[in-house]
Write a structure and sequence with these properties.
It is a single chain. The protein contains ten helices and 15 strands. The two termini are 22 Å apart. By secondary structure, it is an alpha+beta fold.
Length: 370
C-alpha cells in the first residue's frame, strides 16, 4: 500500500485567511445554493497556503509529532501524488461569506482497488460540534456513491476515542491499524548498527548491494516489478483490499512523481551474484525543502530471496549512504501495518521507535460498481 495514511483530525485557521478575498464571489447556483467546496489546485498559491495553515495547526494540536506541512511539498503532492495519482483536496466553507474552516481530502485509486475511496477531514476547532465534520463525511460518502465506489476508508489515531465514536455513528467499523515509527539519528547506537551490518552481510554473502539515484535503469526496474509486488504480502487486517498491480509503467510513474516533487530519492537493491536476479530493494527520499526529515519508502524482498536478512542489510546500507549524502538529516519516518512483525522487528533493531498507532475504519456502501 502506498505510503499515504488518512486521519480524522481537527484544525484551526487564523481569522483572516489568505483566501478571504478570493473566497468572496466564488461560484453559486442561483440564489439558494453556493459551492461550499473549492478544489485546491497545485498552482493556486493562496489555496495551497490556506490548506497548509489548516493542516499545520491540526498537527500541532492533534498530532504534534507529525512533520509540518510546507506549501511546496503540498503543491508537489497535489500535482504528482505518490505515483502520478494525486489526491483531491478541497477547502470547505459553510456559508457564502465565510473563509474556509475545513479540508476534505479524497483518493480514488485508478490502477487497482477501484471499489475504494480514502478520505480525510479536518475541521477548525472553534467550529467543532456544529455539524461541519459530519457534513464533510457525508460529502465523502456522496462522492463515493457518485463514483460507484463501495468501500470508504477513514483513519484516526488509535487512542482518539472521540474520533472513533464519530466514525462509528456513520457505520464505519474498525478494520486495521498502522504504526508510525521514527528513527532519531543522534540517538542511534552506531556500534549496534555496525554489528548488525556484519551479521546481515554474512547471511547475505550470495548478494551484492547496488546503490543508485533515480532514474533506475529499465532492466533493473523490470526486475523490481516482482520485488515491489512483494509488498502485497504485508498484513492488511480486515480491510477490503485487493493486491496492488505493479508493472514497469507504474514504477516509472513513481520515479517521475518523485522527481516532480523535487525530492532526492535513493534506491539500493540486492542482486544475487550467481544469477544476477534482483532479490530486494529499499527506497528512501529527502526533500531539500525539509532537509532534516527523511521518508522511508518501500522495503521489500521477493519470496524466492527471503531468509538472508536482506531487508535488514538494505536498510543498514541506506543509513551508511545517507550519512555521507545528507549529514544534516536528523530523523527518518517509516510506516508499517502494526501486525507486520517482521519489518517492525527490523526497524526496532536499527533504532526506530514507536511514535503513534493509527486505526483504519471501513464503511461498505450498497452501490453498483462501475
Amino acid at each position: 500500500m502506498s505510503a499515504t495514511f488518512v486521519t480524522v483530525t481537527h484544525a484551526t485557521i487564523r481569522r483572516h485567511s489568505p483566501l478571504d478575498n478570493q473566497w468572496q464571489g466564488r461560484p453559486t447556483f442561483g440564489t439558494l445554493r453556493f459551492m461550499p467546496y473549492v478544489r485546491v489546485q497545485p498552482d493556486d498559491d493562496a489555496a495551497v497556503s490556506c490548506a497548509v495553515e489548516i493542516l499545520n495547526i491540526a498537527r500541532r494540536q492533534d498530532d504534534p509529532d507529525a512533520a509540518p506541512a510546507l506549501p511546496e511539498l503540498l503543491a508537489g503532492d497535489l500535482r504528482y501524488g505518490w505515483d502520478l495519482e494525486p489526491d483531491e483536496m478541497y477547502l470547505f466553507a459553510p456559508t457564502v461569506d465565510a473563509p474556509p474552516i475545513g479540508i476534505l481530502e479524497l483518493h480514488l485509486p485508478r490502477r487497482d482497488n477501484r471499489h475504494l475511496v480514502w478520505s480525510a477531514v479536518t475541521v477548525h476547532p472553534e467550529h467543532r460540534r456544529r455539524g461541519h465534520g459530519s457534513a464533510l463525511v457525508a460529502e465523502t460518502i456522496r462522492r463515493a456513491r457518485e463514483a460507484g465506489r463501495s468501500t470508504v476508508w477513514m483513519g484516526a489515531a488509535e487512542d482518539d476515542l472521540g474520533a472513533r465514536r464519530f466514525l462509528e455513528r456513520f457505520g464505519f467499523q474498525y478494520a486495521s491499524h498502522d504504526a508510525r515509527r521514527v528513527q532519531r539519528l543522534a540517538e542511534v547506537d552506531v556500534a549496534v548498527l555496525d554489528r548488525l551490518y556484519v551479521e546481515a552481510e554474512r547471511a547475505a554473502a550470495d548478494y551484492e548491494l547496488v546503490r543508485a539515484t533515480l532514474p533506475t535503469p529499465d532492466d533493473v526496474l523490470e526486475q523490481l516489478v516482482e520485488v515491489t509486488a512483494a509488498i502485497n504480502d504485508a498484513p492488511m487486517g480486515d480491510l477490503t483490499y485487493e493486491d496492488e498491480h505493479f508493472d514497469l509503467a507504474r514504477l516509472r510513474d513513481f520515479e517521475t512523481a518523485v522527481a516532480g516533487r523535487g525530492a532526492r530519492c535513493y534506491r539500493i537493491w540486492a542482486r544475487h551474484r550467481a544469477t544476477g536476479q534482483v532479490g530486494g530493494h529499499t527506497v528512501l527520499s529527502v526533500n531539500p525543502a525539509q532537509p532534516r526529515h527523511g521518508w522511508q519508502g518501500d522495503t521489500a524482498v521477493s519470496r524466492d530471496h527471503r531468509g538472508h536478512r536482506l531487508g535488514l542489510l538494505l536498510k543498514l546500507d541506506m543509513l551508511r549512504w545517507l550519512e555521507s549524502e545528507h549529514p544534516e538529516l536528523e530523523v527518518i519516518e517509516t510506516w508499517n501495518n502494526a501486525d507486520n512483525t517482521y519489518m517492525i522487528a527490523v526497524n526496532e533493531a536499527i533504532g526506530y521507535r514507536l511514535s503513534r498507532t493509527f486505526a483504519m475504519f471501513e464503511l461498505t456502501l450498497d452501490v453498483e460498481p462501475r
